[in-house]
Amino acid sequence: MILVSAGCAVTAKLVKEAGFDGIWVSGFEASARLGLADNGSISLIQMLELTKPIVGATSLPVYVDVDTGYSDFNRTVKEFESIGAAGVCIEDVHPDYKQNSLWGDKVPLMDIDKFVQKLDINRKIHVIARTEAFIRGYGMNETALRMNRYRQAGADYLLPHSRTQPLQINQAWGAKYATVPTKFPEYTNHELRQLGYSMIIWANQTERVKIKAVRDMLNRLKRCDRMLEAEQDLCASLDDMRGLCE
Question: Which CATH architecture has domain 2-203?
Answer without folding.
Answer: Alpha-Beta Barrel (3.20)
